[in-house]
Design goal:
By secondary structure, the protein is α/β, with parallel strands linked by helices. The chain has helices at 19-25, 27-45, 82-87, 89-92, 110-119, 161-167, 186-195; strands at residues 4-10, 52-58, 72-76, 98-101, 125-129, 135-140, 174-176.
């Protein structure tokens, strides 16, 4: 069965992406940062492991022509809250495990994706915890059953987001890859620039 890496992305429209960062550093600079991540994250992961790479776009009819890459396939995120959209690849992708990431964690490396798929050999769900209490990666085995970590209340963009998901997975086999940080504000942007 094929392994699938799904990268969630918003259409890069000024003032509509990285809005929290934009309030702190200005929307043009935040938009430029987002566009650079929208190019570099997929390029860093395509053809770097035994997975097919997909870009899950929002809105479904969004314009992404400036980042078209031959080695990437596109699919719509669909509607609903973040949990519903992160589960939607289970309905549309060919059989096989899938891992979902975003584009706001510049430190993602192919080794993280490889390890997530390795863990899915023994685990039902895998998370990449984020330092802010959320997660930057979620992976699903899908076989023999698809398990839903969002079936009950999940407080999105909250210090307890990951814990809420874990509470929905009691009795399931859960694995973890490295804890990373996402760039959502001026402080994390400065940290990323220093770490590069």
């Amino acid at each position: 069965m094929q392994k699938h890496l799904v990268i969630f992305a918003k259409e890069p429209r000024l003032g509509r992406v990285k809005t929290r960062l934009g309030r702190e550093i200005g929307h043009v600079l935040a938009w430029r940062f987002y566009r650079s991540m929208l190019h570099s994250v997929p390029r860093n992961l395509i053809n770097k492991g035994p997975w097919k790479t997909w870009l899950a776009v929002s809105p479904d009819n969004g314009v992404f022509q400036d980042i078209r890459m031959r080695q990437i396939s596109y699919l719509p995120q669909g509607g609903g809250d973040l949990g519903k959209r992160m589960l939607s690849p289970a309905q549309t992708l060919p059989k096989g495990a899938f891992v979902v990431i975003g584009t706001d964690v510049p430190a993602i490396q192919p080794k993280h994706i490889r390890y997530a798929f390795k863990l899915l050999g023994q685990k039902d769900v895998v998370f990449g915890p984020a330092e802010d209490g959320g997660f930057w990666l979620v992976g699903h085995k899908r076989h023999p059953n698809m398990i839903n970590p969002y079936k009950k209340l999940v407080r999105w963009s909250h210090p307890e987001t990951l814990n809420d998901c874990l509470a929905n997975l009691k009795g399931q086999k859960v694995g973890f890859v490295d804890t990373l940080y996402d760039v959502d504000d001026a402080q994390s942007l400065r940290r990323w620039r220093k770490d590069r």
